[in-house]
Amino acid sequence: MSESALEQTPECYRRDGYVSPLRVMSVDLAAEYRMKLESIQSMYSYDADATGILTWTAGIVLPFVGEIMRSPSLVDPVKAILGDDVLLMAASFFIKEPNSPAFISWHQDLTYWGYEDAAEVTAWVALTEASKENGCMWFVPGSHAQELVDHQDTFEEANILSRGQNITAHVDEADAVAITLQPGEMSLHHGHMFHSSKPNTSRDRRIGLALRYVSPSMSQVSGQRPFAHLVAGSDRYGHFQLLDLPTEVMADADVEKARQAMAMHEETNYEGATEQGKRRS
């Protein structure tokens, strides 16, 4: 990333609530990571539980995700927004299969995460192209300036979100912009950003890796201490349980930590829900 792009990141983020696109790796390296992911997926294709773990807690169980999430090309622009001390509190793959009805409704990320503050940045890294045809994200610029708004649970089967949550207020899609990315590019967005994505109508998979970076000052209202990886600076607060980086694929000890992480997330994420839908985030 150029020095000028890095310098402009905080201003763009404060104004619009997002920055995109930012080149963080080569097209060839993105293709290499895709091949690694799909090779691992094929190894566990018979095991739905393992597939869920390597999809939703990828940063805990997959070494190559550990490489991506601490890469300076990703972490430096996040530091420009959050400051020198940065934790990675979650890394998950968002995958849309070819010609799939899967979509994501209009929502704000921090709605159900249970944090007391909003010092969080999501880096969405494209391992394949993200286009209008295959279901790229859409943002409403400036919507991050609002506080969290009311959402309703739908639990729609095709909705990738855990509760099928949808903003109750009217969202004027004419104000939205398509966040198209080439393989190896990323976008950054604020946890209050109004965003959504449409189905993949193409003949190839759409693969994105969502990396949730937070300031160590962030804490859970419930008092939970979620798992996280320290990727820059230091943690002076102790609000998170710090993890070592994974060194082998789906190591037993890492899988156990991943199960605990998913259980904590579900406890927070489904707080107040009237229906326990299928786990999707």
Fold and architecture overview:
The protein is globular, with a radius of gyration of 17 Å. A seven-stranded mixed beta sheet has the order 1-9-4-11-2-12-13. The protein has a four-stranded antiparallel beta sheet with strand order 3-10-5-8, with no helix packed on it. Strands 6-7 form a two-stranded antiparallel ribbon. It has 281 residues and is α+β, with helices and mostly antiparallel strands. It has one domain: Jelly Rolls, CATH 2.60.120. Mean pLDDT is 93; it is low at 276-281. The two termini are 30 Å apart. The longest helix has 18 residues, at 252-269. Helix 1 (3-16) crosses helix 6 (72-82). It has helices spanning 3-16, 27-43, 48-56, 58-61, 63-69, 72-82, 252-269, and strands at residues 18-23, 86-96, 104-107, 120-126, 137-139, 151-152, 166-167, 177-179, 185-190, 195-197, 206-214, 227-232, 241-242. It has seven helices and 13 strands. Helices cover 28% and strands 23% of the residues.
Topology order in helix (H) and strand (E) letters: HEHHHHHEEEEEEEEEEEEH
What spatial form do the alpha-carbon principal axes imply? Answer: globular
Profile the largest sheet: 7 strands, mixed
Tally the helices.
Answer: 7
**Secondary structure tally: strands:** 13
Q: What's the gyration radius in Å? A: 17 Å
Total domains, how many? 1
Mean pLDDT: 93
CATH superfamily name? q2cbj1_9rhob like domain
CATH fold assignment: Jelly Rolls
Pick out the low-confidence regions: 276-281
What structural class results from the helix and strand content?
alpha+beta
Strand order of the largest sheet: 1-9-4-11-2-12-13
Any idea what the CATH architecture is? Sandwich
